[in-house]
Amino acid sequence: MPVTPDHPKQRLLFALEPGYPDTAVRAVKVLIDKLRASREWVAAPPEFVNESTEADPGDEPIHTLGAFLDLYVGHGEWADKLPPEIDRALFDEASALVQAFTELSRQFDVEVALELDDDQIGWIEHGVPDRGVAEVFLGEWERSLKK
Question: Where are the beta strands (DSSP E) in 1-147?
Answer without folding.
Answer: 9-16, 47-53, 62-72, 111-116, 119-125, 128-129
